[in-house]
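request received
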Amino acid sequence: MKHQWSRVALTVGALAVSAAASAASPDAAMLSNACAGCHGTHGGSAGPTMPSLAGQSKTAIVEAMKKFKSGERPSTIMGRLAKGYSDADFAAMGQFFSQQKFHPTSQTVDTQKAAKGAALQEKHCGRCHLDDGKDGKEDTPVMASQWLPYLQMQMQMYLDGKRKMPEKMAEKVQPLSKEELDAMLHFYASVNK
Amino acid sequence: MSLGRRNFIKLLGSASGLALAGCASQGSTPAAAPAVAAGSAAEIMPKTGRRVVVVGGGYGGTIAAKYIRMLDPSIEVVLVERNDHFVSCPFSNLYIAGIIKDLSPLTIHYDKLVANHGIKFLQADVTAVDAAAHTIVTSKGRLKYDRLVLSPGVDFRLEEMQGYDAAAMELMPHAWKAGPQSTLLRNQLQAMKDGGTVVITVPLAPYRCPPGPYERTSLIANYLKQHKPKSKVIVLDANPGITSKGPLFTKGWKTHYEGTIDYRAAKKVTEVNAKTNTVLIEGLDEVHGDVVNVIPPQRAAAIAVQAGLVGADKRWCPVNAISFESTLHKDVHVIGDASIAGAMPKSGYSANSEAKVCATNIVALMNGKETVGLSGINTCYSYVTEHEAISVAAVYTVKDGKIVAVPNSGGVSPGDFSAAKAEAMYAHSWLKNILTEMSS
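response:
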């Protein structure tokens, strides 16, 4: 073990000497800060069609990025960018964003729809999207305070069959009308921690 | 030892010479480096601790200042900028073409950024850099630094565009620095009679914002089609073809603007005549426009030239691909359009991304730590109509000391325009996020 460590140290040292412009590999902050031009500083988005990443679980981010990369999850730019990163990079970014403070968005929603959605979501979605969508565990994303236009675009992709719902979600969504689903999105968008 | 009258006048002379050089920095060749620069103005804001001075409050400078402070609040950061606000070039084509009604969605102020991060803001013109003395000269006095970040943008190579002086710019706007020039071009388009001709000249690459001239062409054609359908746009492009997103623009133009856009490749405009509103291709063929938009050839902004930071090409600043430190002057870093950043294009998003890499490694170097490898991104949207946009995106890394795109990643929008409406919406959020990041 000791022997291995000294070899690592030697390699790092040699690299540093050989070329000032190849330094160490990028760390989690370096990888993640590059995303902030579109997703906001530390992943707190100010743009209504771009999701906040701050406070999402590591697994949710890693899973999303892998699906963007493979094309399983449809996208415009994300898939092209995801191809530039390894699974280890995704893990580092996931770790970074999961450690950032929740970022409440300031957006106006339809309060009547939000009230209707509040009642519906508890019965239909609350078993996975825990605590009014504030709790993002494992691969379940934090829904609370997420941008409404982003949520609506994603829901439309689910309904059009462009994005595949997890089996459990498909069962829950199936009996609901488009209006009911939209009401729930208004609710989630309205929840601030 | 009193200062003799003759010496005093000499000093005065050199000071006013400096001021002139400063005024002329908007698009002209700077005067030779004034050797007395650092000595002739009083020092302001005496340095007490470790300090980074950032010059330029645009896409690069604001982010460099902010991230240095976020990463190490014990480093003092002074942001020096000529204006009290910044107008984004990205999206200014929508304003020129009448899709956005004013410049306010493209304008940021510095008050929140400065307050949130404890950045010191100095509104001043920077007239000289004395790298040996770790000092810059501003219109308000001398300022000392430990490390300097220059994010000064571009100026024009007017010596390659005969007749395009300050007066000509007021008649034939470049609108390649957003603000009053954008308004001028917009007003000219709106005043033009139906049946008129708009001429847009495109310089040889590299220049700021590779797809910018073609987005502008698209949106001006869009405006003409809706409001002045008998009019047309002639594009005189010095390049052998469309510089960026070529097949997509070509397809968009064929779909929407057939007969409105007359694109001519390999037509290098070298001279303008503001009296007759004409441009000359290679000094020979004359083309007249009712509205003429001259986008001149470019180089790093005058201050970078004055500071001796441009390389053998006499245009752009060579930098280390990890720290963005100049390869010509120690402790001076250059980011954004002015730098040679390998495969990263001269775009707003590149400047944002470069600023973070630079900030991270300035903090590492000032704390005696190992630098961190570069990971960069560029995303760039161009509108083809008011509701449709196309994009190019890439991820960057460093290989053999050079910034390169990560193989098999990135690329442009699908050729069938199936994503164009969604991308037009994403582009708006892109602007909102990137300007918010710069201003808070």
